[in-house]
Automatic annotation (TrEMBL):
Name by which UniProt lists this protein: Serine/threonine-protein phosphatase PP-X isozyme 2
Taxonomic placement: Eukaryota, Viridiplantae, Streptophyta, Embryophyta, Tracheophyta
InterPro entries: Metallo-depent_PP-like, PPA2-like
A GO term, aspect molecular function: protein serine/threonine phosphatase activity
PANTHER family tied to this protein: SERINE/THREONINE-PROTEIN PHOSPHATASE PP2A-RELATED
Length: 53
């Protein structure tokens, strides 16, 4: 079982992850998102407006 699979199972049991594991997951997610062509980087602060129909 991979670390990711173990972490998913741990979260399904409502058991918290270690802070270091959460940080590692966030860093990995950022690495993946940076490579996506449809994700645009924007600097904070950002205001988002939505038009309701």
């Amino acid at each position: 079982m991979s670390d990711l699979d173990r972490q998913i199972e741990q979260l399904k049991r409502c058991e918290p992850l270690k802070e270091s594991e959460v940080k590692a997951l966030c860093l990995k997610a950022m690495e993946i998102l940076v490579e996506e062509s449809n994700v645009q980087r924007v600097d904070a602060p950002v205001t988002i407006f939505a038009k309701s129909t």
